[in-house]
Amino acid sequence: MTTHDALVGTLPGVRLENDTHVCEITRFGAHVASWRVKRTSDELLFRSKLAKLDGTKAIRGGVPVCFPQFSDMGPCAQSHGFARTSVWAVEALSATEVTMVLRRGDEAGDGDAFGGDYEARFTATLDGDALRTALRVTNAGKSCFEFTSALHTYFRVSDCAKTKVRGLRGTTYLDNLRARASAKDDEDAVEFSGEVDRIYTDAPSVLTIDDEALGRRFRVAKTSTFPDAVVWNPALTDKTRGMSDFGDEEYREMVCVEVAGVKDKITVEPGETWEASQTISYSAI
Ligand SMILES: O=P(O)(O)OC[C@H]1O[C@@H](O)[C@H](O)[C@@H](O)[C@@H]1O
Prior knowledge:
Structural class: mainly beta
CATH architecture: Distorted Sandwich
Order of helices and strands: EEEEEEEHEEEEEEEEEEEHEE
CATH topology: Beta-galactosidase, Chain A, domain 5
Number of strands: 20
Number of helices: 2
Radius of gyration: 18 Å
Shape: globular
Strand order of the largest sheet: 6-7-8-9-20-17-16-11-14
Bound molecules: 6-O-phosphono-beta-D-glucopyranose
CATH class: Mainly Beta
Number of domains: 1
């Protein structure tokens, strides 16, 4: 249970620790930048070796908080909204749990474009071998507001070509590679032989990511208040080559499975609080 002036690069944050795991969360973005096994230092989340860790850009990896919009699906000019590039305040801290808060007026960027009088709280909890991350958004104003959101987790895998995301068969997705055209997923698993960028609408509450080369299965359990799920791997394309904070070959080491509220905007009435969370854990396959 410690706060650090320079926890990740030059970014201040807090370190949580239990018997088995360590988790580091920066105040910049309320961003889970590391979740690792204590005994082996085995990192469970991907973070780019080129990630900017000085507050000039959202951290490429870990668990970015997308609020008040996912991607370009909202009024902000910033992709994924301002939460991931704003400095949050630590509100409560124990050995295994932190809550950080961001309020209207304290954000970096497009607070006015969004307009909502919000209080956003992000909580990260180490619970045994699992990590729970939750986002709560309270409407502190007098008129209702709406937003889209995601917890954009980058899972570290040994080889994306030998990784499969399961649980989505029979569901519908909007394909970001085809102007968000709707398609049905009839495959046993999502595989990564090229670029994948899909918004699964009304996704099941549990998804798994099988890292077959390593023999590790991540489990992602989400609340129904995050009805959607995004699956993303950028592969090696001109777009990735142009990303200054992502190495050309690093796509092999990551798969993003993001719990989200995207298809239908989330509405919060004055005085009300919306809450959604994910619990991520892992086991041998
Ligand atoms: O580069 P950014 O803004 O962090 O976004 C990364 C990716 O985030 C994913 O959630 C989107 O589906 C992708 O389209 C996007 O490329």
